């Protein structure tokens, strides 16, 4: 190897080491603090104990907030996936004038308006309708923000399903609903799975909308409760926070591991230049 | 269905699946209703609330008056709004346009030829930082940057620096680079797969350096991807509520980006009309950024 190549090799290794440390170090706390008998903000080899877990399970709202999160998340994910599938299929097969322009405008609107910019009207609207503190209503609001992107991505998938499949099913007398259920859905399954996982991760981690709309502590999902654990009495509740963070993060991590093992986690040409 | 056959007859050429008008409307409307209710309507209503003196409590909460452009004039005069706009710009430029873009590209470029094990580990960590819930991630960084016993202080051997208090914006920029690089990395990996290997081979055989190869061979192929990526991450970062979870805008407004400013005005201060007007201004900035992007994209083709 020439000196130049050696220098290159060294620079490459150093860069990768720095990147690995940069991304890994913040996450180590989540592995050590939940099991430490005296959890602090710093990182150290834990003095192993499971007391923190017991304290967390005894916290009056910890477990119920996870249940609230599940309800909210299931509503948002199911509504997004089902409605987006129906809409994407129809928009892919029936040509409506101005369809593509409409989809682009909605997509742009959803990436610009969701959350912060629409904070005031969404808060006022739900407040006046008396729908604050409802997991179902908050789930629907989240779904409304996710739908444009979901339809956009799914339509790409359905567009790639050959129409001849549906035509032959029609020739053999299948009804349009049967065609959708037995021909289109199985072929578009990877796309639908993508949307399902994406909507779940988005709804599970969403903080702003539940924070605005769920003012009552017994109906708050995990995202909001975890935040309030810090404000209680001014200082952080370091016995409960690490364990609860880990519990709350596990579904997303498990989903990621499942997806990356099964499908590989990358973009499949869905995003075009 | 009684009305399906005529619909199918008139639209046969365009409706191969035989969905029919009635069914098409039934399939599309649930999604459109939700989008209309929770996206389009709030967007329009923001403009209306923005021209009133609506508040959360007090007399103006019962009977808000229309004040025209008063809120907008006030915002443009408000030093705190100017501060928030400037901090948002710093946040977007520092963490999205520079941080995520460059780190994401560097990772995609350097990991192409890496050993599969190394590649898997790096990609998993980067992706994990992207998909973990934002509240959890905020705690991870609060623990990392804390003054007493924070991991960073211990690592570099100088405890006692309260990073989030002394350098709030720099902390947020580094944090958001960590948080969002995964998207750019994924997008650039799939873009790089489209660069013809023969051209990379040619570049290597004439002895081009890595930087020359990226600039003259790779960049022309992925220019569209760079634009798309930069637009998306800029919009997401400008509207990100993450800074609230780390610093809540403090200390003394030093890290109060526009989304945090809007929240502080709307809920704790209860000035809904003013907050809505600022939202409209944020929307306008977003639209200008998108328009510039569309112009650049059109110029390319």
From TrEMBL, chain A:
SUPFAM superfamilies referenced in this protein's UniProt entry, alphabetically: MetI-like
Instruction: List, for all copies, the residue spans of the domain called ABC transmembrane type-1.
Output: 66-259
Where is it found, in Gene Ontology cellular component terms?
Answer: plasma membrane
Q: Which UniProt keywords apply?
A: Cell membrane, Membrane, Transmembrane, Transmembrane helix, Transport
Localization of this protein: Cell membrane
Keyword Transport assigned to the entry: answer is yes
**Signal sequence, start to end:** none
Q: Which GO terms describe its biological process?
A: transmembrane transport
Q: Could you list the residue ranges that cross the membrane?
A: 12-31, 66-89, 101-124, 136-158, 179-201, 239-259
Which membrane topology term applies here? Multi-pass membrane protein
Q: What Pfam families is this protein classified in?
A: BPD_transp_1
The answer to whether keyword Transmembrane applies is: yes
Regarding protein family, the annotation reads: Belongs to the binding-protein-dependent transport system permease family.
Name this polypeptide is given: ABC transporter permease
Q: Which organism is it from?
A: Actinophytocola xinjiangensis
TrEMBL record, chain B:
An example of a Pfam family matching this protein is BPD_transp_1
ABC transmembrane type-1 domain ranges (all copies): 86-293
> Which GO biological-process labels does this protein carry?
transmembrane transport
Instruction: State its location(s).
Output: Cell membrane
- Provide the transmembrane region boundaries: 21-48, 84-110, 122-142, 272-296
Any keyword Cell membrane? yes
> Which CDD domains does the UniProt record give?
TM_PBP2 (cd06261)
Q: How does it sit in the membrane?
A: Multi-pass membrane protein
Q: Which UniProt keywords apply?
A: Cell membrane, Membrane, Transmembrane, Transmembrane helix, Transport
**The family this protein is said to belong to:** Belongs to the binding-protein-dependent transport system permease family.
Please give the name of this protein.
ABC transporter permease
């Amino acid at each position: 190897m020439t000196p130049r190549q050696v220098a290159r090799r060294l620079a490459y290794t150093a860069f990768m080491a720095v990147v690995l440390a940069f991304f890994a170090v913040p996450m180590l706390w989540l592995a050590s603090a939940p099991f430490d008998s005296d959890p602090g903000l710093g990182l150290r080899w834990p003095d192993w104990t499971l007391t923190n877990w017991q304290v967390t399970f005894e916290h009056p709202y910890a477990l119920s907030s996870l249940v609230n999160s599940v309800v909210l998340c299931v509503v948002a994910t199911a509504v997004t996936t089902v409605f987006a599938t129906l809409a994407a299929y129809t928009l892919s097969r029936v040509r409506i004038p101005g369809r593509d322009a409409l989809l682009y405008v909605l997509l742009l609107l959803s990436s610009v308006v969701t959350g912060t910019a629409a904070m005031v009207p969404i808060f006022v609207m739900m407040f006046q309708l008396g729908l604050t503190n409802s997991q179902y209503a908050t789930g629907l609001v989240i779904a409304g923000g996710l739908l444009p992107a979901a339809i956009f991505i799914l339509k790409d998938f359905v567009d790639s399903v050959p129409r001849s499949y549906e035509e032959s099913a029609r020739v053999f007398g299948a009804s349009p609903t049967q065609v959708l259920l037995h021909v289109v859905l199985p072929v578009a399954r990877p796309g639908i799975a993508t949307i399902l996982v994406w909507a779940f991760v988005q709804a599970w981690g969403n903080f702003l909308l539940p924070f605005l709309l769920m003012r009552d502590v017994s109906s708050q999902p995990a995202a909001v409760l975890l935040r309030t654990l810090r404000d209680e009495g001014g200082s952080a509740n370091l016995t409960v926070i690490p364990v609860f963070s880990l519990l709350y993060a596990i579904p997303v991590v498990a989903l990621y591991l499942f997806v990356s093992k099964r499908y590989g986690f990358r973009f499949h040409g869905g995003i075009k230049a | 269905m009684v009305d399906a056959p005529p619909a199918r007859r008139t639209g046969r050429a365009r409706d191969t699946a035989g969905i029919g008008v009635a069914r098409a409307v039934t399939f599309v409307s649930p999604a459109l209703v939700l989008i209309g209710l929770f996206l389009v309507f709030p967007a329009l209503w923001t403009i209306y609330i923005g021209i009133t003196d609506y508040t959360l409590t007090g007399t103006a909460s019962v009977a808000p008056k229309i004040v025209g452009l008063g809120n907008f004039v006030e915002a443009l005069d408000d030093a705190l709004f100017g501060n928030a706009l400037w901090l948002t710009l710093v946040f977007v430029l520092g963490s999205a346009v520079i941080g995520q873009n460059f780190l994401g590209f560097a990772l995609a470029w350097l990991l192409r030829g890496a050993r599969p094990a190394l590649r898997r580990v790096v990609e998993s960590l980067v992706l994990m930082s992207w998909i973990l819930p934002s509240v959890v991630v905020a705690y991870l960084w609060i623990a990392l940057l804390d003054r007493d016993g924070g991991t960073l202080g211990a690592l570099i051997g100088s405890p006692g620096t309260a990073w989030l208090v002394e350098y709030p914006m720099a902390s947020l920029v580094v944090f958001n680079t960590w948080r969002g690089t995964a998207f750019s990395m994924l997008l650039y990996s799939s873009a790089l797969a489209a660069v013809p290997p023969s051209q990379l081979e040619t570049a290597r055989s004439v002895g081009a350096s890595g930087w020359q190869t990226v600039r003259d061979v790779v960049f022309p192929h992925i220019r569209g991807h760079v634009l798309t990526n930069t637009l998306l991450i800029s919009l997401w970062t400008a509207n990100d509520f993450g800074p609230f979870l780390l610093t809540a805008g403090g200390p003394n407004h030093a890290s109060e980006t526009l989304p945090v400013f809007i929240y502080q005005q709307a809920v704790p201060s209860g000035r809904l009309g003013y907050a809505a007007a600022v939202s409209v201004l944020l929307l306008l900035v977003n639209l200008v950024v998108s328009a510039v992007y569309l112009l650049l994209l059109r110029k390319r083709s």
